[in-house]
Amino acid sequence: MNSRGKILEPEGLASGIRDLSRPLVFTNGCFDILHRGHVAYLEEARELGGSLLVALNSDASVRALKGEGRPVNPLEDRLAVLAALACVDAVTYFDQPTPLALIQRVRPDHLVKGGDWPVERIVGAAEVAAWGGQVHSIPIRYERSTSRLLASLSRP
């Protein structure tokens, strides 16, 4: 499957995930400027299950979270870059403040966020646990941050 076939529209997500193997791992984020920390995190998340589905914040959602000037890369580019990674089985996006509606729709077996998110603060954790899924906060392996990277570029 080429990376284009990995990009799923939110409206058709239910039919698109039928082609993914179980257990299904779900994660989400902005993934604005992909760096080593992101890749290590996604590879580790993928090891939890049969398929990894990554949901990206829409451009408007990133702007609401990170402020004007973000995202640096538009949604279409972020989707394409993540879809090209071997560890990612499918990507989609959401325009709401959180991915809760997507989580409820796809009912992942594993819900994953980075180690800076305590399990009790992960959106959808209660729902996933209620249907017998597992929630994971994967430790940060590399101290990388898109916000810090962008700040370092703006220094004289």
Quick gist of this model?
It is built from seven helices and five strands; from the N terminus they run H-E-H-E-H-H-E-H-E-H-E-H. Strands 3-2-1-4-5 form a five-stranded parallel β-sheet.
Task: Please characterize this protein's 3D structure.
The longest helix is centred in the first third of the chain and has 11 residues, at 36-46. 34% of the residues are buried. It contains seven helices and five strands. The model has no long low-confidence stretch (mean pLDDT 89). A five-stranded parallel sheet has the order 3-2-1-4-5. It has helices at residues 13-16, 36-46, 59-66, 75-83, 100-106, 125-130, 146-154, and strands spanning 24-29, 51-57, 90-94, 110-114, 134-138. By secondary structure, the protein is an alpha/beta fold. It has a single domain (3-154), classed as 3-Layer(aba) Sandwich (Rossmann fold), CATH 3.40.50.620. The protein starts with 12 loop residues before the first helix and ends with a helix.
SSE blueprint and pairings:
Blueprint: H1 13-16, E1 24-29, H2 36-46, E2 51-57, H3 59-66, H4 75-83, E3 90-94, H5 100-106, E4 110-114, H6 125-130, E5 134-138, H7 146-154
Parallel strand pairs: 1-2, 1-4, 2-3, 4-5
